[in-house]
Amino acid sequence: MMKRTVQVKAAAVFVFALLMTTFAFAQKTVPSPRDSVSAKVAGATITINYGSPSVRGRKVFGELEPFGKVWRAGANEATVFTTSKDITIEGKKLPAGTYGFFAIPTETTWTIIFNKVAKQWGAYKYDESQDALRVTVKPVASAMNERLVYKINGKGFSLNWDKLSVPVSVK
Fold first, then answer.
1. Which of the residues 49, 60, 79, 127 has the least number of beta carbons within 10 Å of its own beta carbon?
2. Could you report the per-residue pLDDT of 91-117, keeping only the tens digit for each?
3. Mean pLDDT estimate for the chain
4. How far apart are CA 122 and CA 137, in angstroms?
């Protein structure tokens, strides 16, 4: 009887330890968690869903994200941009819909891309022939943002990461 009680207690301790270990791993921080932002601009509801990587001491633009190459504008799955109504981006019309959102950064200007294929992993299968719209914008210096974050305001939205902000006008 005594041996059986010890076995039950040992099993209970094991199960408790297993549960605590599982809980601890579940709480582990994801390196580039998904995030999203949504707001009204020019009468349309705009939603941007993206992976939010951290700088973590790296040189972001020009190294981690090379100049002159298509970038998913976030981490992991490509960033997804949705607008509930037709809008004008930097003076060019973008129909209502959901798009893959990409960028081509350079030192002085960025090409902002709205691609008809919304669900993609990274930019590995990005196809320029599927672009719905491309515009050129100028990045500006900003306060440090350890994590990539998108912000929407009455004039449009911006991609903010490291010490750079990339504003995009919406009307």
1. 127
2. 999 999 999 999 999 999 999 999 999
3. 89
4. 22
Half-sphere CA count of 134, side-chain side, radius 13 A:
12
DSSP conformation letters of the chain: -HHHHHHHHHHHHHHHHHHHHHHHHHTSPPSS-EEEEEEEETTEEEEEEEE--B-TT--TBTTTB-TTS-B-SSSSBPEEEEESS-EEETTEEE-SEEEEEEEEE-SS-EEEEEES----BTTTT--GGGEEEEEEE--EEEEEEEEEEEEEETTEEEEEEEEEEEEEEB-
pLDDT at 12 over 60: no
Amino acid (1-letter code) at residue 27: Q
Sheet containing strand 97-105, strands side by side: 34-41, 44-51, 79-83, 97-105, 110-115, 131-137
Among the listed residues 22, 56, 50, 19, the one whose alpha carbon sits nearest the alpha carbon of residue 34: 50
Residue 150's pLDDT band (cuts 50, 70, 90): very high
Report the phi/psi class of residue 128: left, alpha or beta, with left for phi > 0 and alpha for psi in -120 to 50: alpha
Half-sphere exposure of 56 (CA within 13 A, CB side): 6
Contact in structure between 75 and 51 (CB atoms under 8 Å):
yes
Mean pLDDT of 42-47: 97
Residues making up the chain, counted from first to last: 171
